[in-house]
Amino acid sequence: MAGRPVDHQRRDELLDAVVDYTVEHGLSELSWRPVAAGVGVSPTTLVHHFGTKEKMLQIVLERLRQRMFAATRDAAGAHPDLATAARAVWVRTSDPRRQAEFRLFFAVYGRALQAPQQFADFLDHVVTDWMTSLREAQVPDTDPETATRTATLVIATIRGLLLDLLATGDRDRVDGAAESFLSTLEHRP
């Protein structure tokens, strides 16, 4: 006898609720009972929709990544230049309302470096999504090697600034440094 089929609309609703729960509570609370209680379902319902805890984690991280990338892309507009794209990334990631989201991001990043097999999908996308977007935002005749180097510098700088902001809470200092960096992108040939 086959189990009941997964209702994909319900699964998507549950996934969004689990992502929100994970952002609020962090990875340490990502186990069946606390998550189920937090989103108002039974642990059996979560198992039915997500299979294993590991699979649920992978799906949660994928949805979170998609949300973060889409929101930043939407804020930057259809075909932004490099300075506009980088500024949109900084504005969204440094927004105090996104603090829990990016604390989770760095927590996952740290875990992924410790257990790369478990977090292979996360590691495959953590740089490549932004790399592609930031390379495309550069002047069309930029040679690919230079575009990749520049995109790498933008990603590393913004992530470093964000990590500093999350660790210290010194918004004025870090925003000032971010503005200094972002202004250099506005004057690129």
Average pLDDT number: 89
What separation lies between the terminal Cα atoms? 66 Å
Strand coverage percent: under 5%
| Computed structural class | mainly alpha
Shape: elongated
Domain count: the total is 2
Strand elements, count:
0
The largest sheet is: none
Low-confidence stretches: none
Helix content: over 70%
Contiguous helical run count: 10
- Over the alpha carbons, how many angstroms does the gyration radius reach? 19 Å
Give, in order, the helices and strands: HHHHHHHHHH
Task: Describe the 3D structure.
The structure is a single chain. It is elongated and about 60 Å long. It is mainly α. It contains 10 helices and no strands. The model has no long low-confidence stretch (mean pLDDT 89). The protein has 2 domains: 1-51, Arc Repressor Mutant, subunit A, CATH 1.10.10; 64-186.
Short structural summary:
The chain has 189 residues and is mainly α.
Write the layout of secondary structure elements.
Elements: H1 8-25, H2 32-39, H3 43-50, H4 53-76, H5 82-94, H6 99-114, H7 120-125, H8 128-136, H9 144-168, H10 171-186
DNA-binding region: 31-50
InterPro entries: Homeodomain-like_sf, HTH-type_TetR-like_transc_reg, HTH_TetR
Protein name: TetR family transcriptional regulator
Essential attributes:
mainly alpha
